[in-house]
């Protein structure tokens, strides 16, 4: 009886030790939660990389495959699987801007726009000429504004959007976001001005309900 209790206690202690040293569900966190992985997780990574090396001539090719899969699941609203694929891409080669863009978009959708800004900034550093990143950061600032009602956040969004326009003055999404930012600031004149520009360049970037509300002002 004593031996049996000792065995149960030992197994419970081992289970606790294992849990403490193998953080769970890190594959649904950006960059695996930036935690120290346990031996078993490191072995799993090694096996995954070896498998990718068998199927692809270069790890960059394998990374692109995982990124493609990540976006596929993202647009299917399967954000957990999407995050797992972006993490695998990061493990293969952490130098692609799309990985961090994916991280940021998923985190923002899950209601953590402040955390998302970090990953959008990382994407910008790797690809500073992509104007769509400024749409993403402006959306994150707008999300935070809706929670905190701090107009400084909208001014930050506007600055980012203006930077994006310098990179690509024909990006309709930037004008659309500028319109909504000024709308939240109760600057209806500027909001209407930028909505007109957005319509000229990309009518699909405009929310029909928002346009109806703005037209009524």
UniProtKB/TrEMBL annotation:
SMART domains membership: TPR (SM00028)
Source species, domain of life: Bacteria
Keyword Acetylation: no
A single BP term in Gene Ontology: cell division
InterPro entries, sorted: TPR-like_helical_dom_sf, TPR_rpt
TPR repeats (start-end): 97-130
Keywords for the protein's UniProt record, in alphabetical order: TPR repeat
Keyword Transmembrane helix listed: no
Gene3D superfamilies membership: Tetratricopeptide repeat domain
Protein name: Tetratricopeptide repeat protein
Lineage, top ranks: Bacteria, Pseudomonadati, Bacteroidota, Flavobacteriia, Flavobacteriales
């Amino acid at each position: 009886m004593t031996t049996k209790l000792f065995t149960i206690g030992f197994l419970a202690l081992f289970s606790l030790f294992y849990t403490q040293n193998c953080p769970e569900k890190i594959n649904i966190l950006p960059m695996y939660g930036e935690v120290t992985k346990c031996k078993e997780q490191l072995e799993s990574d090694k096996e995954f990389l070896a498998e990718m090396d068998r199927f692809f001539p270069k790890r960059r090719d394998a990374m692109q495959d995982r990124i493609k899969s990540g976006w596929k699941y993202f647009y299917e609203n399967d954000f957990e699987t999407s995050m797992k694929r972006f993490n695998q891409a990061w493990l293969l080669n952490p130098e692609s801007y799309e990985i961090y863009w994916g991280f940021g978009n998923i985190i923002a959708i899950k209601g953590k726009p402040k955390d998302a800004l970090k990953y959008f900034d990382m994407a910008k550093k790797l690809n500073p000429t992509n104007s769509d990143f400024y749409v993403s950061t402006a959306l994150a600032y707008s999300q935070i504004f809706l929670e905190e009602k701090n107009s400084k956040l909208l001014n930050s969004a506007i600055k980012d959007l203006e930077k994006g326009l310098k990179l690509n003055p024909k990006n309709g999404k930037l004008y659309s976001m500028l319109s909504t930012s000024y709308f939240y600031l109760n600057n209806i004149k500027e909001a209407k001005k930028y909505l007109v520009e957005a319509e000229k360049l990309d009518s699909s970037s405009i929310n029909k309900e928002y346009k109806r509300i703005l037209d009524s002002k």
